[in-house]
Amino acid sequence: xxxxxxxxxxxxxxxxxxxxxxxxxxxxxxxxxxxxxxxxxxxxxxxxxxxxxxxxxxxxxxxxxxxxxxxxxxxxxxxxxxxxxxxxxxxxxxxxxxxxxxxxxxxxxxxxxxxxxxxxxxxxxxxxxxxxxxxxxxxxxxxxxxxxxxxxxxxxxxxxxxxxxxxxxxxxxxxxxxxxxxxxxxxxxxxxxxxxxxxxxxxxxxxxxxxxxxxxxxxxxxxxxxxxxxxxxxxxxxxxxxxxxxxxxxxxxxxxxxxxxxxxxxxxxxxxxxxxxxxxxxxxxxxxxxxxxxxxxxxxxxxxxxxxxxxxxxxxxxxxxxxxxxxxxxxxxxxxxxxxxxxxxxxxxxxxxxxxxxxxxxxxxxxxxxxxxxxxxxxxxxxxxxxxxxxxxxxxxxxxxxxxxxxxxxxxxxxxxxxxxxxxxxxxxxxxxxxxxxxxxxxxxxxxxxxxxxxxxxxxxxxxxxxxxxxxxxxxxxxxxxxxxxxxxxxxx
Length: 493
Ligand SMILES: Cc1cc2nc3c(=O)[nH]c(=O)nc-3n(C[C@H](O)[C@H](O)[C@H](O)COP(=O)(O)OP(=O)(O)OC[C@H]3O[C@@H](n4cnc5c(N)ncnc54)[C@H](O)[C@@H]3O)c2cc1C
What we know:
Strand content: 15-25%
Shape: elongated
Structural class: alpha/beta
CATH class of the largest domain: Alpha Beta
Bound molecules: flavin-adenine dinucleotide
Distance between the termini: 37 Å
């Protein structure tokens, strides 16, 4: 049996309209996946007057977003109500500049512009959907708040080179929740809202393949609902909001092999790439598939940010006050997969998230630490001496670490925490996905839209598209914001 004759539905093979026996469900807009992007797409499709059905493979809605920190990256327009209440003015231009840097070499200026201009309004919209934000500010350096505070520094804003080009402001806005996991409350509210405005939600429903007519227009989707295959007609469009591909190790090996170095997947479990594959099956192009978020949560305690990372040559390679995901990428690509965080007695602490990190060397002098790590004689000692000399003067001429985090490492005993491959856990999710317009229209290899097909969230390649530039909150900010655009665009078709 040839590929085209095979009628078994699969994400990688569309179903031909001619093979549809009947329409089991007939609607305007079909949303695949009820997570961050899907919930917002459904809300906006309904607001635009379209009938909408949402199909979610899991027994309960929420996706990875419901496991997340619930931190959303927003600002600009002078500041959100929370930024302004705490004295942080945040211009649209500064947010734009930061996001363009964060997008790296492939930053999408049109998308970034739309987001920078709309992000503060988007925060108001989230509140209007019922998502609670306490409105308080949590100073310091955190990976995720365990308090129920709202505003925090969540990226590399105050760190070089970002701080040199865009005025820093805290932009992480976290849904009000005590403990880890504000995403739970964020998604409870957004999913409830989608149903309240009339989107028909089907859980335990896996989208299997897209349905296309002879002109490659996407006209529906095959869904397995509670074990039974159903053919769903989408008169206006199908919006793929099925997340990324980090749990599909074959796809990771093929498209983002460097992410295999990360043992921990940042996912609710269904980021299996099925949405991306459905888009590819009808000619959707993918971009930045090699990019991924990778963190090594080496702090809190924040004192550890005052330590310095060195590699197998005993050399520093990053300003350690940058976002932990940026530091993570630099750590992962060091020669031989070897890197250590050097600390002295004053700043030492066990990282809260990975407290069992291996202490690879301890010494009363830096010479002893260097010998224990078997580094070339004089290398680490020279690095620390230079760092200490400059830190005492409040400077870091090599990597421009901000003065707040500069302190000579002079109080013995000294230690090296191992961030070598095999010793540490790196956590990852994928950033690449379907190439889309800001409105969610999926584009083919020629840059032409595929009629009837939209994508948002980690199914698409959105604002997060460069691992080194990511900041906490960007994925939820992107997914919820551009999910809304896709919902509106599909409804308007
Ligand atoms: C522990 C953790 C902490 C995080 N913290 C943050 C944070 O604070 N800020 C931030 O910005 N990001 C954070 N993230 C990342 C963020 O949650 C995700 O990147 C984001 O949820 C992506 O949104 P999405 O809509 O694309 O995917 P999701 O929210 O995962 O939604 C996709 C949905 O599609 C469903 N689905 C998949 N395949 C199918 C199919 N074939 N048929 C039907 N349904 C399907 C899935 O079950 C899921 O419900 C965190 C993630 C985790 C796991």
